[in-house]
């Protein structure tokens, strides 16, 4: 064998080291941290709110997004329920919220694009992110508040 090539044992050692590094680093890369997870949930929720507004305007009817803070889910009327991750806590202030001791709230979008408005807070690992819906325009936005 020549001095310029790699032996089979050297190649196996290098492959074993690469496998070890991949095994250690893959879970850190594939799973978002709790603080990033709350942002992802907020962005998805804001997207669902925007979709509900567009649907209300397009079909000229009211469309509601309901949420339940006890059972930890939200749902656009006619759509599937979206469960929140166990690491994310939710609270809501909406015009139609917590009637008669229930833990449900809703934000309704009207055919003209306006809404009942509201503010949904999502908290994880000391980081709070708000999803705010303006009652006049129906526009939704994500606001972050650091720990």
CATH architecture, by name, is 3-Layer(bab) Sandwich
Corresponding CATH superfamily: minor pseudopilin epsh domain
Question: In what order do the strands lie side by side in the largest sheet?
Answer: 3-2-1-6-5
Summed up, the helix count is: 2
Please identify the structural class as seen in this structure: alpha+beta
The total domain count is 1
The helix/strand series, from N terminus to C terminus, equals: HHEEEEEEEEE
Describe the global form.
Answer: elongated
**Rg from alpha-carbon coordinates:** 23 Å
- Give start-end ranges of low-pLDDT stretches: none
Count all strands and give the number. 9
Main beta-sheet annotation: 5 strands, antiparallel
CATH uppermost class: Alpha Beta
End-to-end C-alpha gap? 61 Å
CATH topology, anyone? minor pseudopilin epsh fold
Overall pLDDT score: 85
Quick summary:
The protein is built from two helices and nine strands, in the order H-H-E-E-E-E-E-E-E-E-E.
Element layout with pairings:
Elements: H1 8-30, H2 34-59, E1 63-68, E2 73-76, E3 82-83, E4 89-94, E5 96-97, E6 104-109, E7 118-124, E8 127-133, E9 140-145
Antiparallel strand pairs: 1-2, 1-6, 2-3, 4-7, 5-6, 7-8, 8-9
């Amino acid at each position: 064998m020549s001095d310029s090539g790699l032996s089979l044992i050297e190649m196996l050692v290098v492959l074993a080291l690469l496998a070890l590094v991949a095994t250690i680093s893959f879970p850190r890369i594939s799973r978002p941290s709790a603080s990033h997870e709350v942002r992802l949930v907020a962005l998805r929720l804001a997207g669902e709110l925007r979709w509900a507004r567009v649907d209300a305007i397009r079909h000229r009817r009211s469309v509601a997004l309901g949420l339940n803070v006890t059972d930890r889910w939200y749902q656009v009327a006619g759509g599937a329920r979206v469960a929140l991750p166990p690491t994310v806590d939710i609270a809501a202030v909406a015009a139609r919220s917590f009637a008669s001791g229930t833990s449900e709230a809703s934000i309704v979008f009207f055919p003209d694009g306006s809404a009942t408005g509201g503010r949904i807070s999502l908290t994880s690992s000391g980081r709070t992110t708000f999803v705010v819906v303006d009652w006049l325009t129906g526009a939704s936005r994500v606001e972050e508040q650091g720990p």
